[in-house]
Amino acid sequence: MRFEKSCGSIIYRLADSLPLFLVVRYRRHSKYWGLVKGHVENQETEHQTATREIYEEVGFKSVVFIPGFRETITYSPFKDCIKEVVFFLGHTQETEVRFLFDELDDYKWVTISESKEILRHGNDRFLVHQANSFLKSNLFNILER
Question: Could you tell me which of 13, 80, 123, 133 has the fewest CB atoms within 10 Å of its CB?
Fold first, then answer.
């Protein structure tokens, strides 16, 4: 059995005190909208991987991970392979995505309601829902930072 590990982030920004979540479209699968993530390389920590992937995929340099949020999903992308993906909640004030590689070809900032429409994979919808719930529960503390 092969094991793969990736890390990424549910990136959000605030607009009129409401969170907007970044979703990205993958060039290989033109109908697949998802979240920023990628494989762990060498001896990276989970945060290092997520930070690198954020920069490589969308060009953001100033994403702050919100303490206390870490979600893991596990699935089998193909036979004899188990994949674990760790997601952090990341806040940014950046709005314009810069594709540094050709892996992605579009992006949108979406509300929680819009995310349910655009994200086809249940895991992605679950992650954004968890992030939104976390923000609702902790928004006062987060805004005080």
Answer: 80
